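tool_call predict_complex ligand=flavin-adenine dinucleotide
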Amino acid sequence: MQVNMIGWKGNHIAHMNFGEHAKMYGSPFWNFHRAALQKRLLDRAVELGSKVLVKSRVSDVKFGEAGGGVCTVLLHDGRRLSADLVVGADGINLAKRECLVGHPDKPMPTGDLAYRLMLKTKDIIKDPE
Ligand SMILES: Cc1cc2nc3c(=O)[nH]c(=O)nc-3n(C[C@H](O)[C@H](O)[C@H](O)COP(=O)(O)OP(=O)(O)OC[C@H]3O[C@@H](n4cnc5c(N)ncnc54)[C@H](O)[C@@H]3O)c2cc1C
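tool_result ok
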């Protein structure tokens, strides 16, 4: 099955062939709630020994401050956490990337936006297209 994403002017934005993806990855296409995926990732991370800290807002990241490749993460409450590797995964505003590149680096609008809505199946069936 192929799904097409069409822009409001009728232009093609993207498409995806679920059958081809199934062949490429050797698995059928799965659809699931993101909370279920997040829970599985969290459980596995904890199982592998990860320590999860909440209420730990990052205010800055210092690279190689103490020499070598060690990074230090500064938290709003003054705590400092050091590690060999820091992965910035703080979402669209990418503040941690700005710490790395050393200047403001805001997200760039692409001009494409997607709006979602829900329709009743009986209303969809009434429309021949
Ligand atoms: C209403 C809505 C519907 C969406 N629907 C879909 C969909 O159906 N399918 C899809 O694929 N995508 C969807 N998206 C997009 C999807 O949610 C994002 O692409 C995805 O969440 C990005 O993941 P991320 O891990 O990069 O960032 P995020 O999910 O934004 O996670 C960033 C995390 O970093 C934390 N953080 C930020 N700053 C700091 C800081 N200074 N210190 C510590 N922590 C910090 C935040 O609290 C957050 O927990 C939707 C988005 C929205 C808003």
